[in-house]
Amino acid sequence: MKSIIICEGYTDCVLLQYFLRKVYGWKDGGRDKVLESTFKSMRVLKKASDTVRIGGCGGCSEIIPKLNFILDMNNVSAEKDAEFDRIVIITDRDEIETEQDFISRIKYTLAGNHVTAIEEIKNNEWSLCTYCNGRGKSLQIQNVLQSVKWEDYGNIQIGFKKLYDLSVSM
Asked: For the whole prediction, is pTM greater than 0.85?
């Protein structure tokens, strides 16, 4: 499984890495030179045959452009198994009006990349999507929006636990 977590910034990226390493046993997987040139911060983690890339965008307003970049990579990918199977978006929504507005932006970005959402996009739930890659092969991806509310103590831990629970539930 090849996944990517798109988060707001450097601190989120580092915190997610630390959490996945210390709590769930992921190991450092090195660098991704292609994505490092697009994201403000980027790291690869591995666990068994699974890899996850964690990319900090440089703010909430940069999440949608980075999602667009990843979807474009998936669409034009001509190499076997180069596509991301799962895309996770983590935000605290401090720069956007409502969760529904953000979901609308995600839907618009998916449609603009010829990705069809089979299931309704909701916060904290995987949604199945289909698209055709550069080899003409019909593929599926799963994406999830993890919108964390930071007002109460402990929400960051709860949010990361939900994220991990979601990632292993499929």
From this structure: no
